Amino acid sequence: MIKSTLTALLLTFSIWVQAQPDLDYYFPDDIKFDPAIPTPGEIIGFEVGEKHVSHDQLVKYMYVLAESSDRLQIERYGWTYEHRPLLLLTFSSPENLADIENIRISHLKLSDPELAGEVQITGMPSVLWLGYSVHGNEPSGLNASLLVAYYLAATQSDEITDILNNTIILLDPSINPDGYSRFEQWVNQYKSHISITDPDNIEHNESWPRGRTNHYWFDLNRDWLPLQHPESKARIDQFYRWKPNILTDHHEMGSNSTFFFQPGIPSRSNPNTPMENTQFTTKIAEYHAVALDKIGSLYYSKEVYDDFYYGKGSTYPDINGCIGILFEQASSRGHARQTDNGILKFPFTIRNQYTVSLSTIRAGYDMREDLLKYQTDFYKNAVDMARKDANKAYIFDGGNDHTKTRYFIEVLHRHQIEVYTLAQSVTSENHKYLTGSSYIVPLEQKQYRLINAIFEKTTSFTDSLFYDVSAWTFPLAFDMNYTSLTGKSFNTGLLGEKIDIEKQEPESETLVLTVKGNKDIPINEPSFPGRH
Ligand SMILES: [Zn+2]
Predict the structure, then answer these.
(1) Rounded to the nearest whole angstrom, what is the distance from the C-alpha of residue 55 to the centroid of ligand 1?
(2) CA 132 / ligand 1 centre spacing (Å)
(3) CA–centroid distance for 501 within its chain
(4) Which of 283, 288, 370, 398 could form a disulfide with 404 if both were Cys (CB 3.0 to 4.6 A apart)?
(5) C-beta separation of 54 from 47 below 8 A
(6) pLDDT: which is higher, 529 or 25
(7) Mind listing the pLDDT tens digit for each residue in 63-79?
């Protein structure tokens, strides 16, 4: 008797007989959907959360949705190493989408202090970017993107009409398709009809190299600054094409936790990020708290995670007048797993990510004028700060390594940093920077804050405990000769020709370095203007 009771108890705790999730689990009863818009399940063949959607199925659904609804446009903005498409969906009202290019151009003027006065913030839509599962084995975000996309395309309510009239919502459903596909293969092939919730079960323990990283096992959530991989290069172009006001970054963490959203530990924000950024993040967090309370999910904030290294998806936006937000959901690792808090089921993790996606949209809608004004002031203040800064420019050369110098400049250009040839030789700290082989970055430009973040040597910290990367001074990483020039040693006569890197073809990785007035130099030639 005792034995059979024990067995029954053990079975209760060690397996979860999977009830099929249905859309009612994710959406409250009072939401009405347009029946002409297909649900994810109708296209992928199973309900969201029942299995892990494959990347191919995800792509198929997003294209079907774009064909079915006039509330979104879809584009492929790049390819991964394994030739999976990187998608960006643009949601807004049909009227806004018909005029989307003009809306984008007006929006970009806000971040140009010389043009910002031309546009009236009142009535402008905010630009919100939702980005899912940069770590491929943190799948709840990516699977939730199906629900978010369906909700935005198919919901029938005055609220959604109002939101779409006043926001542009960019949705990147899968930032790291190659890593995700490794993970999805693993968990789906070891999924049982009756879920095994034992953490030691093979379903919960994927083999090396696991799905976190991309094809070359590089963590794309450290690549927003170095920009060394095709996923990051393609994405940063889209980021600057739109300059969003809020950008979300959906992750997973240890299974015994609950749900985290930023702000993180206040003393661990990068000092180059304005204080207002944390204030906005805190205000937006109130929306997540209300939404998670409504569905009875536990959460926390401010206790962990720093916001220091700009190579991370939730921090890079902060140095660009945007509010980056990190979400961390406790991971079910597979379809259901025992944890300290009971059995954690995959659909539950998806529902939380879907919920905070919508709370972010509501916050971005309510706060749109404040966010747009903050973005405008961010760039205006950057130029003002540069004028007051004792340092006026950075100069650098790569010695005889022309290729290294070229790629260093390429990274700066991808971050929209202006670089000039050095018009007059400069001697500093016993090194002579020669014209023809040296370059200069004046600080008085829109990316003043980011230039400092990339060039400065930070050797003391308010809070020296780090979750993540604490040193990344770029010229040191590239082993460049470099120095800063103060007002005494700088004059605008040092600025030679402005260097532009232009894409030859949208589909091509080939770039061209152009010195204005000179002939174009393809980037795959080991030469540089003024050299040889
Ligand atoms: Zn992660």
Answers:
(1) 18
(2) 10
(3) 23
(4) 398
(5) no
(6) 25
(7) 999 999 999 999 999 99
pLDDT digits (tens, 9 = 90+) for 400-431: 998 999 999 999 999 999 999 999 999 999 99
**How many angstroms separate the CA atoms of 283 and 277, rounded?**
10
319-351 pLDDT, tens digit each: 999 999 999 999 999 999 999 999 999 999 999
Q: What is the pTM of this model?
A: 0.91
The alpha carbon of 522 and the centre of ligand 1 are apart by a number of angstroms equal to 37
Residue 79, token pair as written in the block: 């390819």
Q: How far apart are CA 129 and CA 103, in angstroms?
A: 16
Cα(343)–Cα(336) distance, rounded to whole angstroms? 6
Between CA 266 and CA 305 the distance in angstroms is 9
Q: Which residues contact 62 (CB under 8 A, 6 or more apart)?
A: 74, 87, 89, 149, 173
Mapped onto helix, strand or coil, the DSSP state of residue 394 is strand
Distance 309 CA to ligand 1 centre (A): 14
Tokens matching residue 422: 């050095």
Structure-token pair, residue 326? 């990190």
Protein residues placing their CB within 5 Å of the ion ligand 1: 135, 138, 251
What is the residue whose two structure tokens read 């995800």?
Answer: 58
